[in-house]
Amino acid sequence: MSRRREWFDDERFWRDTYDFMFPPERFEAAPAEVSALLKLAKPRGKAVLDLCSGPGRASVELAKRGYRVTGVDRTRFLMGKARARAKAARVKVEWVESDMRDFARPAAFDLALSLFTSFGYFDDKSEDLLVLRNVFASLRPGGVFVIERTGKERLARIFQPTTSQRVPDGGWLVERHEIFDDWTRIRNEWVVIRGGKSRIFRFHHTLYSGQELRDRLEAAGFADVKLYGSLAGDAYGVNAARLVAVARKERQRSGGTSRARRSGGRTSRLANR
Ligand SMILES: C[S@@+](CC[C@H](N)C(=O)[O-])C[C@H]1O[C@@H](n2cnc3c(N)ncnc32)[C@H](O)[C@@H]1O
User: pTM to 2 decimals?
Assistant: First the structure.
């Protein structure tokens, strides 16, 4: 499918920001994150979809624990990192190079993941709903979807237009942020200064409050959407560090009225292919 190019389609963006986005601590955190999310989601089976799997932080950790993982990501560079990681850990993961809008595998997974703010990238916001519908279609009845991202409430509380930090190689990362589109999106500019030279990376995405994310998930057919402030299950309250949604695809009761059925059994146009 041909689409207008957006910022996340640029491989160079992921290549050049890799060291800031994925420092060693982020990989070191993966085992604890995976333990926490498994405890929170309690999947009924072992088939996992890691949507936007990036360099395979969660995918590889789950595979080490005996889960059958499918990692989906559109960035070849990051998928190369993920493959190398799986190889080094001697685990098998199915890697699918695909845009998240195009991936659907009907009733194939017990657990689906969207971790580390990997949702809400599209200029056309309705495409977020398309992704959720694809995930809904890809889950088995009783399956569970975990989204972990920055929440709008926290951002409003801590928002600073400009921040800066030292990066491991001695350079500086200056971040500039701008809220636009009536508090529905954030535009970010990362200026990396090294050895007297600077490079700029620009990206933007849609912001979700807890309620907005819940509404989106329910519109896609999910039920029993619970919100947390961390993968450890803290309350989504004023001190929430993250926005975590755990959403279930209801098991169909005979003659039942699952939300998806009530809404006319909507599934993705892609899932229907
Ligand atoms: C912030 S990273 C998170 C990676 C991973 N979930 C983690 O927790 O480490 C966002 C990921 O989304 C992927 N991505 C961005 N846009 C995408 C799209 N349209 N379809 C599929 N993957 C996409 C990027 O390649 C990147 O791996």
Answer: 0.92
